[in-house]
Design goal:
alpha+beta, about 35% strand
Length: about 190
Amino acid sequence: MTEIQKQKPYFYLKSKNEKLDDMIVREVNTTNNDSRYFHIVFTYGKKTNLKSFSLNKAHIENGTHTLIPCPENISHLPSDDMTWFEYQPNRFRYKMMYDVMLENDEIIKSCYPNGITFTCFKSKQELSEYAANLIKKQHGDIKDSQIKAIRLCKLLKPLEHSDDLMPNTEIQVSSNFKVFKEWIVGNAKE
């Protein structure tokens, strides 16, 4: 059985410490009341070699670090490839390829969000012609009301080959984080 997740606990972190400023983080393994542990998902500001870090209550309470929950309409991030998320209409979708699970548990691979539908393609030729506006897509649209869950297609690593129609790349992940920062971060105030 396929595990379908709900929204993950993502936060936007603003900090007076420039190594931990202007980034998206995910809380993990909070084991005691004094410290909270985070995995760095994406850095908008100065790049860091850190992958994770912890903050104690004092860091948060004295204003050195501010954690702002990402908006509720963000169920996943561009880096959340190969994880199924419960689909709810009017939630944010990125300009990347998705696999779609229908209400009857059928999985349709390589779909692209398009308004209130996902458009699926049968071949690279069809995808290329559609992207070049040479054909008007008359078939293959999946309506929001038919969808149970979505997942971003596998993220293609540098120098890796894929037979997917249009594999997601690290460049797309970075681009989607930057282009959609306003939506991902929400109305974060310092």
